[in-house]
Specification:
CATH topology of chain A: Metallo-beta-lactamase, Chain A
Order of helices and strands of chain A: HEEEHEEEHHEHEHHHHEEEEEHHEEE
Largest sheet of chain A: 7 strands, mixed
CATH superfamily of chain A: Ribonuclease Z/Hydroxyacylglutathione hydrolase-like
Helix content of chain A: 25-40%
Number of strands of chain A: 16
Distance between the termini of chain A: 41 Å
Strand content of chain A: 15-25%
Strand order of the largest sheet of chain A: 1-2-5-6-7-8-9
Number of helices of chain A: 11
CATH class of chain A: Alpha Beta
Oligomer: homodimer
Structural class of chain A: alpha+beta
CATH architecture of chain A: 4-Layer Sandwich
Shape of chain A: globular
Largest interface: A-B, 124 and 124 residues
Radius of gyration of chain A: 23 Å
Chain lengths: 335, 335
């Protein structure tokens, strides 16, 4: 009974001999056809209470990067990045970047924070991303009931869900709150004219596509450091983009920090706050922001929603080595 | 833009002044009734591939212990246990113990491993536990299609789901594989006559209730170190109970260790493998088993399903301090 050794675990697997002892009272079971594999994941949503508020995390899926560019972390050699991935028990040289928008019901307002990559990406990615609208419906939330969409910054995975594949509004009855600095930057013709070809040019074009027509009519800009909705305060967290914004959400005695993209995936950038992700526009400023915010999160033991954390993307932050480490909040099967 | 300090985050929250600047193109949004809170958690199931096998983790919910007994960890003072809970950002003096059975579709067999606490506990706990059968249905798995139930040991949270509230079979077409040593121990009249009143007496009685009638007719006993189903090998892991058993599941190049109750919640007993949980019948032997298995899991980087890990309860194990630490596998929104 107590003879467990590594050797006999392995030997047991290798043996492969089915030698089940039949107990005296066993009866024969009729043979039946094998159940087919289901092949389908559950709809990705998860709900919790924050004081009187109800938070629903609704995954948009992941960005599956089969071959990670060597410069994905701009200021760390590929070998160190691969080592960090392996330390997280993940394959080296590849990366799944999750998208985790949240929905907040304050009791008086139904608010979506960032919108995922949009329906077009659902088709493009063969359902791996662009799931936000279908998972929202699975969570029992009607997009038409959304009062407000709050946008953290103007990258595709945060804004493209504002518009459906047919060009209609993703949230037809919602006002769209956007950071004033972000809106000004991306819609400024001078800034666009100075943008290098490639990724930055693409971002300018996409932002002008999304923030036109009906979306533009719904837009309201907000400043940092303001209560922009009941219990939701904007916090400037620039660097990733010029007007990148995070949020403090408070209800009763509870507080949540919705970081947006202060870090990308935690197992790389929470552990190594000095690492600069390829996506950070002003990497030095982004690092400064990241270090300040993670110092605060760890010191104050503030709960954080990370847009690029693994679903359901809610965690606390502890100090660890020269950086930090996320401690995921245990899944609660009720709310 | 770069003036983020801890002071102004807090000040921002305190300010509470709604001062949203209206952009020139904003239009009025019609006032609407607030969406009601949903108040409902998603059905707790999660699916992944292990080689050719399809694994579905199906939560039975949690055991919500509002006041943790002082001797919950038999050989550590309450203060140390509270400190470990606080280090995991959990409330001191209380504990949620999750139940995470798994279902394995090998392509030829549909197998349930441990059954949760049963329908009676769903009513008793007001839906906090006893969710296995309803979540199984939500996962699209028909209990009647299950070919085999494998039981790790004879505690209520692992076996009570074998019988429905009306006394009928939980899995009417399945054979029920049980550890020979476990079955012999709990059905032995001499062992029962020597059991102290209270918890142990209750276990003997419950085991005789469950393993009677139709369940008894379906039972087949198995030995440790055998392939008891295609790719599933039993591994003796005694201590928690006399015949407690774990499993190595292998398909293609992939391996999963289904530990059952080698540890209870990871943030206490994976971090501190020397701690003895109240539930461990032979605590010294359980610790010996735990240390051997966690040494193996960490050294071999073997993926583990932990019955009392937070849903979806699949992780890797790293060495950490004088013990180990679980690294949860990131949620995959597809399979």
């Amino acid at each position: 009974m107590s003879e467990l050794t590594r050797r006999n675990i392995v030997a047991g697997v290798a043996a492969g001999a089915a030698a089940t002892a039949l107990s005296p009272f066993a009866t024969a079971i009729p043979a039946r056809a094998a159940a087919p594999a289901a092949g389908k994941q559950t709809a990705g949503w998860y709900r919790y209470k924050l004081g009187d508020y109800e938070i629903t995390v609704v995954t948009d899926g992941v960005n599956k990067i089969a071959k990670l560019p060597d410069n994905f972390v701009v200021n760390a050699p590929k070998e160190q990045v691969d080592a960090a991935l392996k330390a997280a028990f993940l394959p080296a040289g590849a990366l799944d970047i999750p998208y985790s928008p949240v929905v907040i019901n304050t009791g008086s307002k139904l608010i979506v924070m960032d919108t995922g990559t949009g329906q077009a990406n659902f088709a493009n990615s063969k359902g791996v991303a662009g799931q936000f609208h279908s998972n929202l419906a699975a969570a029992g939330i009607d997009a038409k009931a959304v009062d407000m969409v709050i946008i953290s910054h103007y990258h595709q995975d945060h804004i493209n869900g504002l518009v459906m594949a047919d060009g209609s509004l993703g949230f037809p009855n919602a006002e769209i709150l956007v950071p004033a600095a972000e809106h000004k930057y991306w819609l400024d013709d001078g800034e666009m004219s100075r943008a290098p070809a490639g990724r930055m040019e693409g971002l300018f074009k996409n932002n002008r596509r999304v923030f036109s027509g009906d979306v533009a009519k719904r837009v309201k800009t907000y400043e940092a450091g303001k209560e922009i909705a009941p219990g939701i305060t904007s916090v400037a967290s620039p660097g990733h983009t010029p007007g990148h914004t995070s949020y403090v959400v408070s209800s009763g005695s509870k507080t949540l920090f919705v970081q947006a993209d202060v870090t990308n995936v935690p197992f790389l950038f929470v552990r190594n706050p000095g690492w600069h992700a390829f996506f950070d526009q002003d990497a030095k400023l982004a690092e400064e922001t990241r270090r300040k915010i993670y110092d605060m999160l760890a010191t104050d033991k503030t709960m954080v929603q990370g847009f690029h954390y693994p679903f359901p993307a809610v965690a606390f932050v502890e100090k660890s080595g020269a950086g930090y480490r996320e401690v995921m909040v245990p899944w609660n099967p009720t709310i």
